[in-house]
Design a protein that fits this description.
mainly alpha; 25 helices; 74% helix
Length: 521
């Protein structure tokens, strides 16, 4: 054990030391002026690679604790830096054109913002270890729950299973309508045309995903998990037919993190996560990336089965790295934004939540926000994805295309480098908390699983969607209702058992028979 710690310390010193040297050298070359900006850019690129290597080498010794952290590092590199890696390897002579940068100065600034956010995320995640060490230790030791909660947990599990099955029908129905819309009108049109879904069905379908999260949060056995997991996998695979790949990916990553953390609670000799399992998961991940990219070709009408697998995988890296476009176009067009309202781009999910919630809408007399891709909406909304795409390419925007958004770009346009650092710090703390999530009660675990589906996608989504989607009024009321219903069932069943339980022999008063006591009670 001591030798492992020494090896880890040496690797940390080398990897993070190289990172610091390269970042400092990059800053020096940038300070030297325009002729050296390109050199500064590539030094920072190698600095990011060294930072990634340091994070992966350090967390390899804590894989159970840091699996979600490593997945985010991978997702961040793929979604925000993947296109830089691709073009640095294949088209370095066309770097500005390929990355849509107006100048090397803009390209360096955009990459600096991305690299700085990653650096602070890694530093805060590791630095926060003492804060959460107590909870992380409790994962292996188990955690004591209140007596009522222990008694209610099996009931909550059964109620969540019932709700999962009941809501799966309307949920799959709504998904079928979306699939038909994509098949009839095409993938791009699905962003401009809305699907009309009956209100009752829409309401019932909202319980499907949280029901599964609650079920997992009760830590069921393998036997109890088989059928609910099968139902959920049907939904995951069906989501591909809508043309959106991120739903399947985020759900799969959530399950991967959950089962890895569950495995950590087992004794070392009984764990399922072995070197062979990790290798198989790696092969499965490569195959999944290949299939997802082939799906993208099919969606774009450019499907060729005979494409070399290497070319397909590199195209996958390039296409997924398109989120860097959001950051570079933000830098290119920074002067065109109204600085008086840019802070509202960062908080747009809260604005959307308040306007579209029935209670708040009626209370404050607000109008619901219906997101459609047209000029009128783009000029009035605070949705950064819509605003940026319209500013850069109005024709593409009105045709249903879009750049998407990123928490890094939203933070930068809202508050500059300071806001980027604050968002990276928040993300680091959130992911560190996730390391100890199984040490908490089922409510925290369920909310954590729902939040992780959004957090892992932060490089390509709104900064605070994870808050509004996770802690929605529907989820809060639903979880509270499950808990209250479970407590009622426990109390009723306890009274029934008390009344029907036969008294022990020799405990009855003289002159009374057991039958009389039961009848008279």
């Amino acid at each position: 054990m001591l030798r492992v710690k020494r090896i880890s310390a040496v690797l940390d010193l080398i990897a993070f030391g190289v990172t610091a040297v390269l970042f400092l050298a990059s800053a020096v070359f940038r300070w030297m002026g325009e002729p050296y900006v390109e050199t500064a850019f590539y030094l920072m690129l190698f600095g990011v690679i060294a930072l990634d290597a340091g994070a992966f080498l350090h967390s390899a010794f804590h894989i159970y604790r840091d699996v979600h952290f490593l997945l985010f590092i991978f997702a961040y590199n793929l979604l925000l830096i993947g296109r830089i890696y691709f073009n640095a390897m294949y088209f370095p002579h066309k770097m500005l054109l390929a990355l849509e940068a107006d100048s090397w100065d803009n390209l360096y600034t955009a990459f600096f913002v991305v690299a700085l956010a990653l650096l602070f995320f890694v530093v805060v995640y590791y630095a926060a270890e003492p804060v959460f060490a107590k909870y992380e230790k409790r994962i292996r030791e188990g955690h004591a729950q209140k007596t009522k909660e222990k008694q209610a947990l099996p009931v909550i599990r059964q109620l969540s299973i019932f709700m999962l099955y009941a809501s799966s029908i309307p949920y799959l129905y709504t998904m079928a309508l979306k699939v038909l819309a994509v098949l009839e009108n095409g993938y791009t049109a699905s962003f401009t045309d809305t699907v009309q879904i009956p209100g009752v069905i829409s309401r019932l379908s909202t319980f499907f995903v949280p029901s599964f999260a609650v079920f997992l949060a009760t830590l069921p056995t393998v036997k109890e998990m088989k059928l609910p997991l099968l139902v959920y996998c049907v939904y995951m695979l069906a989501s591909l037919l809508t043309g959106r790949r991120n739903m399947l990916v985020t759900e799969a990553l959530m399950l991967l993190v959950y089962f890895t953390m569950r495995d950590f609670r087992r004794d070392k000799g009984k764990r399922y996560l072995t070197k062979k399992t990790v290798a198989l998961c790696g092969i499965g991940g490569i195959l999944a990336a290949y299939l997802l990219q082939m799906m993208a070709y099919k969606r774009a009408g450019n499907f060729i089965l005979t494409r070399p697998i290497g070319d397909v995988l590199m195209s996958f890296v390039d296409s997924q790295g398109a989120s860097f476009r959001v950051v570079i176009q933000t830098v290119n067009n920074l002067s065109s934004f109204n600085q008086n309202i840019t802070w509202m781009y960062l908080l747009y999910p809260f604005e959307l939540f308040v306007h579209n919630n029935l209670v708040f809408r009626n209370l404050f007399g607000l109008q619901p926000i219906v997101e459609v891709q047209n000029e009128s909406f783009a000029k009035t909304t605070h949705n950064f994805a819509h605003v940026l795409t319209y500013k850069v390419d109005p024709q593409r925007y009105e045709g249903g295309g879009g750049f998407g958004t990123s928490f890094v770009a939203e933070a930068y346009v809202a508050g500059g480098i300071a806001a980027v650092i604050l968002m990276a710090v928040l993300a680091g703390l959130l992911f560190r908390f996730m390391s100890s999530i199984l040490a908490h009660n089922w409510v925290v675990v369920a909310f954590g699983l729902l939040a992780f589906r959004e957090l892992i996608y932060l490089p390509r989504t709104f900064a605070f969607t994870w808050v509004t989607d996770t802690f929605s009024i529907t989820n809060i009321v639903y979880f509270a209702g499950l808990y209250v219903a479970a407590l009622l069932v426990v109390q009723i069943s306890a009274k029934v058992r008390k009344r029907t339980r036969a008294p022990a022999a020799g405990t009855l008063p003289a002159g009374k028979s057991p039958s009389n006591e039961i009848i008279g009670g």
